[in-house]
Design goal:
Elements: H1 13-18, H2 23-36, H3 51-67, H4 77-80, H5 88-104, H6 109-120, H7 123-126, E1 135-136, E2 139-140, E3 146-151, E4 155-156, E5 163-164, E6 168-173, E7 179-180, E8 194-195
Parallel strand pairs: 3-8
Antiparallel strand pairs: 1-2, 3-6, 4-5, 6-7
Helix pairs in contact: 2-3, 2-5, 5-6
Length: 209
């Protein structure tokens, strides 16, 4: 498979049309994540994240790639996967599972190849043999512990799942990125708050992608 750079990604109108401009993409992801959550090699990456939220995040991420519209406000793959130890073999395993879902979804072999080429671009950001620190504005964050933050945009609590307004306070785990409201925080104290944008409403803090 030919590898491309992230800068080579462009909107794919033929793909988006084949995905019925959204409904078929959601159906494919429903099939894919149903299998992922039942897979002993992949399911643990989604502990604490509902299947519906994983689908929604990946839907927005892929829809932005295929349409070119700025609809995804979650983390880029490097930060979203920074704590996950994923080998090339496991990355390939995940891609083969996705390919089987694309084929069941009725995509042509040509479009399946284009989909896999788009996902292949992110291999170097995801594959690693040990967790790496998340980077925000060039600053590396610790791999463990919680920080209190004021979140400048709407967000969802990873505990109760409720939507929270912009400019409200949360507590997030610096390795997984899971973010909690005051009522769900693993530690109820909210101290040393610093402004920081974490995610938009509907975007989970962590996802295997």
């Amino acid at each position: 498979m030919t590898r491309r750079r992230k800068s080579d990604l462009a909107a794919n109108e033929a793909m988006w049309k084949a995905l019925e401009r959204g409904p078929k993409l959601r159906a494919i992801l429903q099939d894919f994540y149903t299998r992922v959550y039942a897979d002993s090699r992949l399911a643990h990456f989604f502990d604490g994240v509902t299947k519906e939220r994983a689908i929604e995040k990946q839907y927005n991420f892929l829809a932005q790639i295929f349409t070119g519209e700025p609809i995804y406000f979650g983390e880029r793959p490097r930060n979203a996967h920074h704590w996950m130890v994923i080998s090339d073999e496991l990355f390939d395993y995940r891609e083969e599972l996705m390919e089987s879902c694309l084929r069941r979804g009725g995509l042509s072999e040509e479009l399946i190849g284009e989909w896999r080429s788009a996902e292949e671009i992110f291999r170097k950001q995801i594959v690693k043999d040990a967790p790496i620190p998340k980077k925000i504005r060039g600053v590396e964050l610790p791999l463990e512990g919680y920080e209190d933050i004021d979140i400048a945009i709407g967000w969802n609590c990873d505990g109760c799942g409720n939507s929270k307004d912009a400019n409200t306070r949360g507590r997030y785990h610096v390795r997984t990125g899971q973010t909690y409201c005051e009522g769900c925080s693993p530690d109820a104290r909210f101290d040393s708050v610093r402004p920081h944008v974490v995610k938009a409403a509907g975007e989970p803090g962590s996802s295997g992608g």
